[in-house]
Predict the 3D structure of the following.
Amino acid sequence: VARVTLALMAFLAAVSSVRAADKDLLDVLFANGAITREQYETLLEVETLTSDDILPDESRAGSGDVESVDGASATSEVDQQVSDAVADAASAMDRRFTAEYVDDLTLDGSYESSGFRLQSRDGNWRHEIQWRTQLRASTPFDSEPRQLSAFAADDRTNFEGRRLRLKVGGHGYQPWLRYYMEIDFQPARDVDDGSASASARVIDWRIDVAKWDWGGIRVGQWKIDLNRERVDSSGRQQFVERSISNRVFTIDRQVGIQLRGRAFRETRGDFSWWAGVMNGDGRGVRNNSDGLMYMGRMQWNFLGRDLAFRQTDVEFTELPSGTLALGAFTNTGNCTRWSSSGCGNLDGFESPATAAVDQFKTDQWVQEFAFKYRGLSIQQEYHEKTIRDRADGSKHELTGGYVQAGYFFHHLVPSIPEPLEFAVRYAAVDEPNAVNRTFENQRREFTVGANWFFNGHNNKLTVDLSRLSLDDSLVGLDDSENRLRFQWDVSF
């Protein structure tokens, strides 16, 4: 006590006086027990503070004893005590400032599967950023041959940066107010696409209000939740690319509003649902037709557990989890297909630019199944699509789908490396002939693949080998070809 008292006396003698408004110093003295509560409250009213105001009489008397000792020794001891007192006071003030101000402003930083994350201490603000690229090599072609002429083309090996994307997401103000945006800097394009298809573009932008137990509301532009294969991110695939049925049956990205939710969680009646209204003209455009696109999806989580929209079971799902879903949409407009590039047309149908306003009425439904358990993953879809051409009164039926499965055989044979997954897929599409739509073409795909996961889906190598075939009923000919692809998919 005498040491602290002596240090305080020396400190106050050095500065002679302080302003009564210097509340921070009084707080430090009170926190260290140098003054009482009564003294603290009294000193707050004093205009000028001195050592006589703070130190008791016996402490001042003690100071005379110190001055009577050997000069050099006393001076050295006092200097050290003054230094210690000043350091203690400064440290206490730093801690107080940090607790009252800095902690409220500090962001927690971390790296998660969704990228770099910054989050406020109160949890009301979160910002995540990640970029991803796919580096791909393919031979003898990189796309899906849809006509016999494509099979007859010269073989070529192709290298490309298939996707280069920046993802930004998180929440603000409250954890239930979420946002997401995705930019594609280098989209690849088919040779028959315009150069604009390879331009950098914003492909996703959306806001979710997920405040209520029953679900929430989504507005913006995103991949509409009609079928699992399309909603599964291209960075969460089991093969190098989606099946041949995807191009024909996806409704891809649309601008609109959607209600979505989940009920009876973790029971046998557990189900998820989606219902939305969209422009129907694809990505990045306003509604150019008289109508809108309407969609709905019901998903039964029959084991009481939902499955996220991602392929493979690299997470090694401990409890069996499965979903069975039905989805449908209807649209009237100029589009007969959709992609990341927006509104387009299927082979044999007029392009949106040349089609009459609201020329095509499209109705489609899909049945879907998915299951995961301890390294095993299965998913399947079946689609039926009807296109009514109002220009000539014709009606065209398209059917197709796929089934695929993958497994990490390390769980059966320990000598097989744990990060290695093997997978197989079969897909089929029956569609109108491009030259004469009264005839039907049949396309088939059989693919085997393997994945090596360095760090889950965020860093993996994929190789797949496909047998692709086409039966053209108009000319009565068929053809088939093998395709080999390698891909490194990495996110930072």
